[in-house]
Description:
- 2 copies of one chain form a homodimer.
- Chain A is an alpha+beta fold.
- Chain A folds into 2 domains: about 5-200 and about 375-460, Aminopeptidase (3-Layer(aba) Sandwich), CATH 3.40.630; about 205-260 and about 305-370, Alpha-Beta Plaits.
- Helices cover about 35% and strands about 20% of the residues of chain A.
- In chain A, strands 1, 2, 3, 6, 7, 8, 15, 16 and 17 form a 9-stranded mixed beta sheet that branches. A 4-stranded antiparallel beta sheet of chain A has the order 11-13-9-14, covered by helices on one side.
- The longest helix of chain A has 24 residues, at about 5-25.
- Chain A starts with a helix and ends with a helix.
- Chains A and B meet through strand 9, strand 10, helix 6, helix 7 and helix 9 of A and strand 9, strand 10, helix 6, helix 7 and helix 9 of B.
Amino acid sequence: MSRIDQVLARIDSNLDDSLNRLFDFLKIKSISADPDFQEDCEAAANWLARELTEVGIAASVRRTDGHPMVVGHRKTGKPGPHVLFYGHYDVQPVDPLELWDTDPFEPRIVTREDGSKVIVARGSADDKGQLMTFVEAARAYMEIAGDLPLDITVLFEGEEESGSPSLEPFLIENKDELSCDLALVCDTNMWDEDTPAIAVMLRGLVGEEITVKAASRDLHSGYYGSAATNPNHVIAKIIADIRDENGTITLDGFYDGVIDMPQDVTRMWDTLGMTAEKFLGEIGLAVPGGEKDRTLLEQIWTRPTAEVNGMWGGYQGAGSKTVIPAEAHAKFTFRLVGDQDPQKIQASFRDYVRSKTPQDCSVEFSSHGANPALRLDFDMPALAQGKKALQDEWGVEAALIGMGGSIPVVGDFKTMLGMDSLLIGFGLADDQIHSPNEKYNLKCFHKGIRSWARVLDELAQG
Amino acid sequence: MSRIDQVLARIDSNLDDSLNRLFDFLKIKSISADPDFQEDCEAAANWLARELTEVGIAASVRRTDGHPMVVGHRKTGKPGPHVLFYGHYDVQPVDPLELWDTDPFEPRIVTREDGSKVIVARGSADDKGQLMTFVEAARAYMEIAGDLPLDITVLFEGEEESGSPSLEPFLIENKDELSCDLALVCDTNMWDEDTPAIAVMLRGLVGEEITVKAASRDLHSGYYGSAATNPNHVIAKIIADIRDENGTITLDGFYDGVIDMPQDVTRMWDTLGMTAEKFLGEIGLAVPGGEKDRTLLEQIWTRPTAEVNGMWGGYQGAGSKTVIPAEAHAKFTFRLVGDQDPQKIQASFRDYVRSKTPQDCSVEFSSHGANPALRLDFDMPALAQGKKALQDEWGVEAALIGMGGSIPVVGDFKTMLGMDSLLIGFGLADDQIHSPNEKYNLKCFHKGIRSWARVLDELAQG
């Protein structure tokens, strides 16, 4: 039996233990966006550092101004490329909690009607389960071969779900330690449950929160209605007018830098057989809501978006309360593509909001990030090696896909450390990440571990 | 000393005890809209029944399908008109609680910079403090005269702040018991702190809540953005388009039945010296937000309105969460005037919302009331008697005013019991009812008690 086959066999026989370790990790409530869970984020970092060190990747918890980083190293003295593996231990908030079938931090295996099994817990897919596919691959490799096939640095952050404010300063401060030949990032999806994928195109993200303030206090709408400007109406108008009736985003200069895909790429996508019925049917919808003259895959991969992730103002309780609130709020995210400039779009958005804010109101802004879109190098050797490893494991060719979501760290690796990234992940579109009842297919976890073992092996062979 | 002067002197010397009783009442958390406070509403009803009975108005707590009514009677055998006094013991919710300087249910006296004193508590002005002006007037009258000057029935309800669902059935069921010659209602404002007022025009109210549902679950806006319809955007568009750029409400047939005021009435209003600066300046605003071709007093008294009292959808926590929510919500109230038909407006609103709801969404409606506007009879003898009593107490002529708010019970009294109402209240525009730090001026409370003693005396003299 070849060494890689021995490693794969060890992964198979280790699976129950791998799952137990993942469950321990999933029980830690590492919600980065909510300050109430700061100690849980610390606990997750500590857990990972212990785990990596036990595997043989000497790791430590490193302070930042926010949640800590976990950095680990394994020097092998081998000639292959030195790779950095990236993942994040923080998870999304869990609200609305009442929509979870069970406690989001009590992981469990659910067997579905077709007999397949899924791991249900907050973070099971995003990103704890994904991150652990790599850690478990390294563990099996160490156990069989006594070492890894190439030099490895590991970087786990704890603020990915809240805009990664500490990442840039940390990369700059530790540039020499973290600069490698290639980054491996496991935070993306497969094409479908049988087809692996490598993400070669990532949209950027601009996140903006606005607060519109009107009267100096909440008002009775019977006394003040019409006369006093209602900030709910102001926010609604700002949201409503940001897209026109064709779904086109109306911000000044918004489409500057948007690049149409080459026809050979869009032709390849046509062969993927994705339809609006298929993509939207699973979530109970049917009609693509974006730009009317763009196909579904264009809308979700190559076109920029404007979405309101949250809005609120006034009374939300039971029954009626005749109030005009003193202020109202909205959280926007824009997904960017091509060469769209995040700073220009942030400025254009703020100008737009100010132009919609009546004289009697003031508006306050806060930024939740501003990152450009990314396209990876199609000719990078690691891309071919990754594809081969994935084909060996899954038996079908890996799809090279776009990504609706953004993974800002990939841009930071490129601009700050001069390092390309290989984005391989085993999530699925129905994993409900950021939603109640998040899950990660057991098959994805198991074959994900196997895939990383193969990828490391391929990369080491050059 | 005349009998009324003796009664007024007793009111003055009783004031501290009157305040203590009001404080006991204000401590009861009778929030009718929130089911968590059902027992508190019961407690408030029981407290009132005991209080009335102690005063000499034999009272009982009467069951309804919602919060109970309190009904009391004092038969005097005197020839004057039999009057019914109405008030409500329920109060508005207190959120946002963090904006209260102190506990809303721990009443206290605050001395302001100018030396005047105010009673701060939820319900101090709306309506517990106002209601107690009448009870305390009756108490002083009983103590001095051994009886009241005319037959009195008292009706206190506990659902005024949540649409009064039990009121109509209760009035119908107890029509004989509750039908009197005249209703006295104490739930309105003075013109200003020196000028008493009688409200002769009340706007109606249609309250509607909508829920727009899109995808079958919350979605990741990176994956589904643009493609999946965002219910936040749908709600925003519904809110934004309900008024045009001139502030005109766009619902089909909305202005049917709106009546322009006679010129002599609007001329009288011009003499009141109300300006946008005065009315809006106190709350930090300056520019009337309603129909551009209407004066401020028209906007708040004689024109119908459309206000969003609450809207919400998606993530409201700290930081960013890239979610497209499965549903979003809004609460609307429309103030009606003249002969506007509440049922037609409810139907027109629902048609409008449906027309704005995309194919991929569904919408659910719930009603928070539908009451027409009211104008009182200017020639009613009780109006002249009430004016005289108020002028005797305050030394200036009482203003006959419109009311932005609606008091549906007045319409119910007229249509179900054939009874006119005299609306006299001692609230002020800056009482912050429905807002944090609600207050009631101590002077309003004290002179309000004295005013009711005088009104009873005038009405008894015929």
